[in-house]
């Protein structure tokens, strides 16, 4: 039998010990120079290539590595520098590149948004401000470097023109067709140069082809790909889709490329149906995404072998490329240094490096290699041990879940009625000001936590330290004149990991970091078993804050859907059931806060939009359980208790109905980077409950002027009810420093006061 080609779609940038993050942040702080940054980045890049090659991967991706984000790399390569940044043309320099990502004093950063249904955020390309041009050939540089330094025949990777444009903003949908042709020329030039350099395979990522697109668009996509194929007729193109099954397979398979990459993990049902209907063209290669690039569990390789056997009935193995389902960007680097408390869980894990090993084992096992076959059965045994582990099932939780329909999922009074009662109790001014929860997680705070976790600090020392932080920031908030205060979340390493650490059913890695945006990483907890509430999680800090002030303190919880979305989740039961389990646990925490006299409780659900299925036809089912989960933990409170929620990075206009269905008394949403679009949405669909539109971007170190925020408030009040409008930043302030935060909040309170004056004049 022939050997089967193996491939990888993309490798994590951050490094085994987050070297990448550390290098970038050192550069931004001025601790290392540009040259040193480049040197370190190059070392990392080459070491990742070596690792992948040594693992036995035939097609090692090049060009996926970045200094911030792969979409921003494309914008820069095409000279798409927004007009507000100075730019003289030519290759975009590093300062401009980072300015687009992070903003400067003079110019606001580019918008950042979720990459499909992941917790990765990309920098949104802005079309129409500067003429697109090919300023340099980035994939070519990466290819040549790998060839020269390592004699590696790399596979250049980039997002394809359709997905690039679908993820961009600044143009009307009527312009898509002509833009596709403009970009086809530019991509064509890139590909031509790659062909001339001797490149064999190029991967063009087109995850947007899994969305339910218009048929017409695919006609345009075809024209664009024909143009690109003409430019580089000798090149082999892999059209790569992921995160779900291709939407219009018949049309997609007509595109002039040499291979199609399909996701057989997250789009298994749809993509297998495509193969079974014999739609896959026999003269193309099939890149089989079979190892899950989105979760950390080992693959059941014995089951994968069975699937491959079925696939061989539709397309012969000499035409296969075996690979992960998507880029490994979404999983941590290696299990090698992990020591989880439960060996059964430890043995069931596979991060990026282990997944590449799985890809190779699978291709060898399929072609009859005995030790690979053995390894395939060992993986099944490891997963079986996990599934049968008694820690997975907790009788009490099972019983609770069975009785779940008896619990309330709706508040007893209408919004109008209870909001009046709440206002009376809370005595707030019009346009009340608040924040989203977290205050700066300074180096000092992180160091304190590390010392406590290492045992260098006692529990008491750490608690005292946290109390000092809370005290300092309650004072600051009072002095600034904010209306609803928070304790600041200093005790939390992360809004999800923190709750995971206090609930049952979760376990943790030491170093399982994943990039979320730019240099920011998260360490998603692992939900391996039934989830339940053990003891109060937030009472101590919240009540301490309350003891320091007469102003209302808002209790802060992370919602069930977000805890689910930002954890690595067991896959032996439906996600919905895990969400309900978390909801039941949070319901208890909400009760504890309420019983302790906390009258405002915020349950953050920033990930509710992220988890929506990519196919709209599956939305209703998802929203039904997502909304139910939220209501399970919030609807049982008294009328006087005000429930807040918060969301960020969402295309809210698509989910306003869902936001309404949550029935939260107040919602705060991020808007500053995409304000206009949202205002427009509220014009069309009025929103009647309490709402705070973020008046400033917290992801940028830039301190906004009073007038800017006043403008946003004024604009918002044209479409939203002034008696229910709140003033707040876009999101939590944990990534900012103290000075920026205090200065920005001071301006925000000022802006709210100005707006109140204008309001009283009008009234
Ligand atoms: N899970 C999650 N997803 C999210 C968000 C979020 O808040 N959480 N927000 C949105 C945006 N994404 C974000 C993701 C990460 C961060 C972030 O601030 N991450 C921190 C890490 C946070 C953390 O877990 N910190 C830990 C560990 C910190 C750490 O690195 N400690 C050092 C030591 C530090 C020292 O001694 O100074 C070490 O272990 O080596 C802690 O505080 O305890 C970072 O990358 O810098 C912010 C936003 C969307 N998705
Ligand atoms: Zn947020």
Descriptive report:
- The chain is α/β, with parallel strands linked by helices and 763 residues long.
- It has two domains: 53-67 and 112-331 and 343-390, Alpha-Beta Barrel (TIM Barrel); 433-762, TIM Barrel (Alpha-Beta Barrel), CATH 3.20.20.
- Helix content is 44%, strand content 12%.
- It contains 27 helices and 21 strands.
- The strands form five sheets. Strands 1-10-9-8-7-6-5-2 form an eight-stranded parallel β-sheet.
- The structure holds the ligand Nc1nc2c(c(=O)[nH]1)N[C@@H](CNc1ccc(C(=O)N[C@@H](CCC(=O)N[C@@H](CCC(=O)N[C@@H](CCC(=O)O)C(=O)O)C(=O)O)C(=O)O)cc1)CN2 and zinc ion.
- Residues 6-313 form the Cobalamin-independent methionine synthase MetE N-terminal domain.
- L-homocysteine binds at residues 436-438, 489, 604.
Could you give a short description of this structure?
This protein has 27 helices and 21 strands. Helix 11 links the parallel strand 9 and strand 10. The mean pLDDT is about 95.
Key phrases:
single chain, 763 residues, alpha/beta, TIM Barrel, 2 domains, 8-stranded parallel beta sheet, 6-stranded parallel beta sheet, 27 helices, 21 strands, globular, binds zinc ion, UROD/MetE-like_sf, 5-methyltetrahydropteroyltriglutamate--homocysteine methyltransferase, transferase, methyltransferase, metal-binding
